[in-house]
Each structure stands twice: as structure tokens, then as C-alpha cells.
Amino acid sequence: MSQHPQASDAPTVQFPVQRLGEPSAPQATPVEALRPRRRLFMVGGLAAAVLGAIGGAGAYAYAGEVPRGTSVLGVDIGGKSRSEAVAALKSGLAWKVRTLGAPVPVRVGEQAAEVNPADVGLAVDVEATVAAAIERSADPVSLLFGSHELDPVVTVDEGKLHDVLGAALGKDARAMKLPSITFAGTTPKATYPVPGRGLHAEKSADAVRDGWLGGAPVVVPIVEIHPTTTKEDVDKLIAEFARPAVAAPVTVTTERGDVTVAPAAIAKSLRLVADKSGRIEPGLDAKKLRAALAGPLGAVEVAPKDAQVSIVGGKPRVTEGAEGRQVDVGALAPALLEVLPLRDGRTVAGKLVTAKPATSAADIAKLGIKERVSTFTTNFTGGLSAPRSQNIVQAAKEVDGALVKPGAVFSLNGRTGERGYAQGYRDAPVILDGKLVPGVGGGTSQFTTTLFNAAYYAGLEDIEHKPHSYYFSRYPAVIESTIFWPNLDLKFRNDTDYGIVIDTSWTADSITVSMYSTKVWDSVKTQYGPRRDITSPKVTKLPKGPTCIPTNGIPGFTQDAFRVFRKAGKEVKREKFTWTYLAEPRFTCG
Q: What is the pLDDT of residue 63?
């Protein structure tokens, strides 16, 4: 670009124009006009000198990747490359291991505690600290005139720290009440959230990181903890989901027919409980859904059949099971959830899938069931046709062939379920409130005693049993058991390494229970102590009628029985069983 002919680098000096009638103003000389420019040149020269000095200092300060004069916890890492700074900081901090590894005093509310750095991952992140030093944008003037102490980057495991501090919180903690929606029948009931007091994991970690190396106890804040779901959220969930969910049935279509999921079944399997944060996410419990639909599903399903062990000629024989076809309830649950809020279109497709037996012949073959390890027999009173004997046989049928795997607990109530008229049981005398009265299932205590003794002499672990209140001579003293649905049960654990099959059989006047497995003990026998504290029966007169059953009365006593285990010709252990029998009154009628 060409310059104007009159353009010049010299400053322009302007003279004011005097108008007619105005007084003349003092006029500045060209020298005076130039003075400010000269001062400007002087200031500019000084600035240039300073900048030049800083530029030289900057070059000095930034020699290496880490600015010179940078230190961390007293360790100089300035003027070094990244790798050199990392090595120097690691080496320097190694000498401070006593300080860095010392317990950190903390105050959590009113509680004083200590945190061991090693327990919660509290440490200096050397790599991150050096990276922060390199990335730090320092003031050029401070680089010229001073050093720079850089705070270290501190790491901590928030979860572990939260657990440690939570244990120290003590009485200052107050758990928040989590919201939920349950059903009374098909009516939803709300449990509203209530905030608690406790620790916030992130805030606690920040406090410990910031105060770790300060020397003073670290104050960890206690905060109010609110569940994620509010009262308004719960009310909305009831109105928009829970009530519509049980307002009408849902139809499940399958290739073998339709299944109706009644509102009651939906209510039993619907889960509307909060997670740890207090958030309610609707779900369906697949196991509860299957249990609630046991009847309807039976019309379209074919249950798988487990492999069975039967005793033929005194030897175990395995029969292979068979596959079944069942509705995939796990896949059905999410589909049901989608239609539960709807008024119309409450139909979903169910898929029938192959259901394999829980136990195969190959599974049984591994269990070592090869011989009889115990057997026990008791005699009927009244013959096989008597209602009491029929109840005993009915229980024996339901238990026959039961497989008890290693570590499993057998429950007689669990195996037979409720023993009522619908299950084939009849009225026979039972003991109720200390006297014999007619009751459904009477006599099953004899089967219970027979089963208990078979398990006892097999050496299996006794979990639950209760002898009768009165002594009956048809049972072995102390080593016997009664049962009553659902409060009294007989339970034992298979504490061997082998499977056990329970075999039952009966004759016209007796019931026998045998256990088949692999023998663990050479013998299991009983040694009795003498009877003591003998009491005599009292005579009690009852009103004459169908509920009165006369008895002759039986003395009461206390006795010990010792289960003695022998192996390799030696006594290995013995277990003590003790029971006190009441004197059975002599009941007369009328």
C-alpha cells in the first residue's frame, strides 16, 4: 500500500484556530507537545526489559516437563521430565511412609474414630499428581520470583471408606424408611418414605481427601438422606400402576390353551419394593407367580418327572425320568408388567419350553446309593383296616422313594404337606391339650417315630423332633417323635457325602422305614440311662360323649438315651438325648 506524500513518523502538532472576538489562548511549543511521547518511550522500554527478563526466566522455569520450583509434600520434582518426576516423587514419598500410613483421626458427628489408609485405599496418586504439575498453568511472574508447592492428587475407595465410617457413626445414624407398596388381598397399601441421617459417600470421601494430610482430625459431614422415591411418587404409582394392575385378570395364550392370571395371583407375585436408594421399580417374582398359578398352569403344562430309585429285592434300582413342557414364567413376567397398567388389551403370549428333570439317572449314579444302612419297624394297633393304620400307610406312601441329597434337610411336613381329608387322611385319636380326642390324621406320629428312628440309626444329623408328652410302650423311650401340622415337624440333615433314599413298606400289622445309601458307620446303637423322677397318674373324670376317650393312665419319668457311633472297632462319638414324660392322667368318661 503506497504512503501519502505528506505522511511522516513525526508526531503531528495541532494549533488551535482563533475565532474573531475570542481571546488568544496560550500556545504549546512543539517541544512541549513531544514530552508525553518521550515518557511513553521510556515506559515502553522498561516493560520490554521486564518482559525480556520474564521470558528468560520462563525459559529457565520450564526447562523439563515439570516447571522448576515445583514440589509436592516437600519433594522437589521441578525441572524434570514426566518419568523423572514420577520416580523422584515415589522415592521421596517412600521416606514418608510412616506419615502417609498413619491412622487418620476423624470425627463423625459426636463420634471419634480412626481410618487406616491401607483399609480404604487412601493414597497419593503419583502419576496423576505429576500430570497435574505438568498441566498446571503457572503465573509467569510467580515462576520468576518463587517456588510452587502443589497439592497431591489423593485417591480413596469411596465404598470401603463409607463402610468404615458407617461403623463409627453409631447412635448418630438413622436409617431412612424405604417406601413400598404391598397388597392386602387385591388392595394396595402404601408405606411412605421417611428420610434418615447418615453419610454421603462422595462428600465423606471429599472431606477425607482434603483433610488427610492437614494434621487435624477430619470432620466428616452427617447429612439427611432422602429416598429417591417421594410420597407423591408412591401415590402416583398406586394410582397409575398398582390399582390398574389388579383391576382385571390377564389372559396368557399358549399353544396348548389359555391361562387366566387372576388379580389375586397378580397381587401375590407383584413386587413394589424399593432398592437401597429408595427407588421403586415394579417387578414380578417368577417363583411366586408360578406358585400362584399352580392350578391354571396344570391344564397346559406337562410336569417333568425326576429319575427315581426303587428298592427291588433289597437293592436300589434307578429309573430314568422324563422331560416336561412348562410355561416360561421368567419370560412371561416382563410381558405381564407391560399390560398391567392397561384397562384393555390385557393379553400376552406365553411360551412353552422344555423342562428337564431336576434329577437325572446320571445324577443319582454319582450319589453312591448301594446298600441299606438302617431300618426300623413299629407295630400297628387295631389292624391295617383301622383308620389310624390307614393314616400311617398314607404318610408312608407319600414319603416312599424320597431322595435326600448330601447336605439337604428332609422335612416330613414339607414332604407330605397338610394332612387333611382331601389328602386321604381319616379321623383317629390324637393328643390335644393333654388328652386323646378324635382328629384327622391321627396315627401319623407312629410313622414319624418310625422314620425318626431310621434316620437316627443311619447316623444322620437331628435337626428337629419332639417326643410325645406321654410315654407309649409301643415306641422306644426318648427316641421317638410326634408331629402336628404346621407347628411340629420332623427334620433331619443328610450330613454324609452320599445320597439317601427312603424306602417304606408295611404289612397287616406293622410299618417299616429303611434308609439306603453307603455306610459311614460300623454301627449306631443306643445306651439308656435309668428312669428317674417318676410321677404317678391322676384320675380325671370327663363328660361322657363322642369326644371322650378313656385311658388307663401312664406314669411319668425322665430318662437319658445316648446315641453311640462306632467305626473301625472304636467308639467315635456319642450324643445325649433327654426327655421328661408327663404322667398321663387316667381319664374316665361319665
A: 56
